Predict the structure.
Amino acid sequence: MRDVSLRIDAGEVIALVGENGSGKTTLAKLLCRLYLPQQGAIRWDETDTAAVDPDGLRRSIAVIFQDFLHYALTARENIGFGAIDQVDDLAAVRAAAVRSGAEPVITALPNGYDTILSPEFADGRDLSIGQWQRVALARAFIRDAPLVILDEPTAALDPRAEHDLFTSIRALYTGRTVLLISHRYSTVRAADRIYVLSDGRIAEHGSHEQLMAAAGHYAELFTLQAAAYTEPTSGPVLS
Ligand SMILES: Nc1ncnc2c1ncn2[C@@H]1O[C@H](COP(=O)(O)OP(=O)(O)OP(=O)(O)O)[C@@H](O)[C@H]1O
């Protein structure tokens, strides 16, 4: 990443978009201090995050990466590990599951929240990718962190679940700051500000309306994706 300068204010919903390999996940990992910048600084308020205790910093961030972990443990543990002190608090685990849409999936399992999410165990069950994604979202909800980073949180969700998540994202995270990475332009358009990454740099930023008016890279990608839904002849042809 080069020449990247961005500011995220408390309570904002910020979206990062850009083509594959443009650096979105790398930027998220830098914010979590999984990587240290070779030059420049990342400051939380006025403090350089390179100078703070990494564990403390990470406790202040709830993050779901694209390749989130699937633990061969119970549904309760898979969610409760988001906030280690609440792993035995079924009410907190259930509340997070309700918010993420995982509750109906889990209650249908043979032992509910005590079902091991792996088919290798007696009465264990595996979940579909989209169901796992709801569990991962619950894991992020349960942690009372001021910064929430969601890297492609809806890639495997069905359209209704995706719609439900994004129409409720501000209510879900009231008072928290959200960094959302997504290739779905319909979901990022409601962000307060959108940063467009290209080849490790910020190519554009602004609100959806500002970026559409600028008629640049964002407007091109948004229009391309929207056209696939609205123009019957522009989509791929299966034969
Ligand atoms: N640990 C790493 N070391 C070196 N290069 C890396 C590392 N992780 C990713 N990259 C490279 O950095 C570039 C940006 O990757 P990144 O995962 O940040 O892209 P992205 O915008 O999130 O892409 P996608 O939309 O596919 O998820 C890619 O060229 C990738 O190969």
User: Anything to note?
Assistant: The domain at 70-144 is CATH 3.40.50.300 (Rossmann fold). The chain has a mean pLDDT of 87. Strands lie at 13-18, 43-44, 47-48, 61-64, 147-151, 177-181, 193-198, 201-206. The first helix runs from residue 24 to 31.
